[in-house]
Amino acid sequence: MKYLLCGCLVLVAGRVLANDLPTFAGPAMGTTYRVILGNELRGQSLGFVHREIESVVERLEQAASTWRQHSDISRFNHAIAGDWVPVSKDLIAIVEIAQEVHLRSGGAFDITIAPLLRLPETASIEVRGKVLGYVGMEHLSVRTDPPALRKKKNGVELDVGGIGPGYGVDQIGNRLLELGSVSHVVELGGEIRAWGYQPDNTYWRIQTRGLRTTSERVLRPGQALAFASSRPGHALIDPRTGHAVQCVHSVMCVEASTCAEADAEAVASLINAQTKDIEGTQK
Q: Is the pTM of this model over 0.85?
């Protein structure tokens, strides 16, 4: 569900080098998650902790899954222009982070890209140009109290696949903090973040698998990593133009203080890097 990668997500993450620690895994947001605790939580069974993680996943699915007909994001996508659509605080938070990254990236990250994603690769320039009229964060209004979204024109739809997994990492990790954990690492869809240290008081260590290589990294407390990748034969869509950007083998890794930001910034950085490469060859 990497929204700009058109199915070419190759990566990632995550085998944490701590095989004997309490570990949880399962499906989430169109991909999978993995959680490793530095220690069992005092007074709480592993079954309870797992159910709490699953509860967070369910909450986020209901907020941001385009596969669910009655999720918050699906209700917004099917709404008519001008109507305020009540949504969860989670979806509002995702949208607000997306707005910030959109501005920082010069528009390379745009969650209103959904209509472009449905176009076949053979779509004409004229068709892409028409659909591009529905893409743009300026077509979206946000209200925080009570939380709601509004589209300014019919045809505007959201896809948060380029930020949702990272946001999910943050929310699962923060819920574990509330339960009393001070040492855990969370990975979802290849995006990963660490809290605290391993039981031996060293940094968490992970292995990441890129397009051609495998490397080992350390994660400092609070550090989040997200990856975006591309390869020949799979085009990126630039939401500013609606056109495909032909890719070479490339992996973009971005570090941030939250995984949601890292997730979105990785996608935007890869789009901007590919666009600059093309502009450079045309000069």
A: yes
